[in-house]
Amino acid sequence: MPTGAAAKKAGVSTQSLQYYIMVGLLKPGKVTQTGRRLFGERDIERIRLIKKLNASGYPLRAIRELFLEGRTDLKGIKR
Questions:
Q1: What is the pLDDT of residues 10-61, one digit of tens each?
Q2: Could you give the angle at which helices 60-68 and 41-55 cross, rounded to 10 degrees?
Q3: Cβ neighbours of residue 11 under 8 Å, at least 6 residues apart?
Q4: Which CATH architecture has domain 3-68?
C-alpha cells in the first residue's frame, strides 16, 4: 500500500512515516520504478511498534539502536 494508506492504517501521520524513513527506522517494503514507496503488513506492524515505543518514552534514536541490534518486538523491553 502507498505511504498515505500505510500511515493511516498504522495510526501515524504521513509526515511521521516519512520521518521514520528519513532517520533510518523504516524502509519501504518495495519502491516502484517511479519511486513510489509501498508498504506491507510487516511494515505496518513495525510502524506501530515504533509508535508504541516512542509513546512509552523511548526517543527515536534509542528505537533505531534497538532495531540495529535486531530487536523487533516488545519482549524484554522495560520502560
A1: 999 999 999 999 999 999 999 999 999 999 999 999 999 999 999 999 999 9
A2: 130
A3: 48, 51
A4: Orthogonal Bundle (1.10)
